[in-house]
Amino acid sequence: MAFGRSNRIPDLHPDCVAFAPLIGTWRGTGHGEYADIDDFDYDVEWEFSTHGGRWVAVHQRTWHRDTGAQWHFESGFLRPVPPDRLEAVIALPSGMAEIQEGTVDGGLFQLRSVAVAQTTTAKRVDVVERTWRVDHAALRCTVQMAAMGHPVSQHLEEHLDLQG
Fold first, then answer.
1. 11-63 tens-digit pLDDT
2. What is the CATH number of the domain that holds 45?
3. Cα 35 to Cα 47: distance, rounded to the nearest angstrom
4. How many domains does the chain contain in total?
């Protein structure tokens, strides 16, 4: 499945073929939890797009489940390190940017921060770990983090479907 989609993405750079399973718009639901905060549920959209360069653009946004108000937004880039590694740069409106490195194995993308840059007013985050797992037209995303003095633990879990 993973490599079958690449021939339907005409502007996909040859080095980005491993990202083919992610390309598209995904929508679904998420659940969040972390120490010192109440659990929460939300609606989520991830968009992975390509423009012919040696990178894939990433945009994520969430909405409050009850009110529909936009809640959170992330934007960045995935860069291939062939044959089976990747790098990511992701910026958040909370005043944080993540620099991550990881692995690609078919439809499994695993990242861990190598640096987390923060403004002076951002909440302290020391480590971010992200996983995207594509299984046909379903995407599962998880985020674990170490923040505000707590050890690495589960923060977000999302289940999405490919649109279109």
1. 899 999 999 999 999 999 999 999 999 999 999 999 999 999 999 999 999 99
2. 2.40.128.20
3. 29
4. 1
